Amino acid sequence: MSNIFNFTPTVLKNLFHKPVTKNYPAEPAQYPERSRGHIEIDIDECISCGMCVRSCPTGCLAVDRNEGTWTINRFDCIACGYCTLKCPKKCLHLTPGYQTPGPQKKEAVYQKSPEVLEAERQKAAEAAAKAAAAKAAAAAKAAAAKAAAEQAQTAAEPAAAVKE
Prior knowledge:
Blueprint: H1 2-16, E1 38-41, H2 51-55, E2 61-64, E3 69-72, H3 82-86, E4 92-95, E5 108-111, H4 114-163
Antiparallel strand pairs: 1-4, 2-3, 3-5
């Protein structure tokens, strides 16, 4: 009987105060300031440079430039934020909160849109054509310089023969 009286102050306190628990599903959770959360990417802004992959301490990221994919293994990620700091385009960011759980352990793969992939291919082709044109122009300039040097040398040979 004395055990019941030990809980009486707690019971009375709980009757007259509002609940301590949160109404989570009905109200969104309030995450504390500076909570890390999880990593999100704006894949169409990504240039597939791989800086995030090189800066990741756990190696949970993978970038495939040819396929236009960015992959993260969420179970290996420690949400340190190094990848977000190293990203030159700032397409990575930490979002407060947690990922919704799934039925199985898997990697999250993000694919660039076909329009962005096609634009990147065209830009790469233009850059390659420009580089080839610059290389051809440099070769032509070198050939012209060599021809001018040879012509100057052949012109100098008869003049040297006249002096002797």
